[in-house]
Design goal:
- The protein is mainly alpha-helical and 135 residues long.
- The chain has one domain (9-129).
- Helix content is 42%, strand content 10%.
- The protein has helices at 9-16, 22-38, 87-99, 107-125, and strands spanning 56-59, 65-67, 73-75, 82-85.
- The strands form two sheets. Strands 1-4 form a two-stranded antiparallel sheet.
- Helix 3 crosses helix 4.
Length: 135
Amino acid sequence: MSLHRRSTAVSTTYRAGYLQSPAWWARRFVFLIALQQSGSLACVSCTNALTVRAAHLHHLSYGGVVRNPDGSWSAEESDEDLVAMCVECHRAIHDLFDHHKHWHTLGRRGATLHAIAHLRRYRLTADPTKGPHHD
């Protein structure tokens, strides 16, 4: 899986298959409930509070995404491979990946961590009249 969200056969299978699978929805729910119970359900980029329903999860690694021989999916991601984000920051991360090729040299985990730092810096220096996000 690349850093992109472009419609390749692999990413389409991932989005239409894995992200719609019962395994992913169960994994997503367990991860987000644990964050909520610990009091840390917030976007890792802008730090805005999130709800379980509205939170997006971004994969730092696809190592735990497993397609079984029967076509079903297993969600074996470690907690360290997932980060909670608001929809705006999640889109911004992928926009950075899609439009700036240098991110690809860092690998998915490195690119994500650098992109989060970049968005945080942007948020701190952005015009406060434009709101908390990256419009």
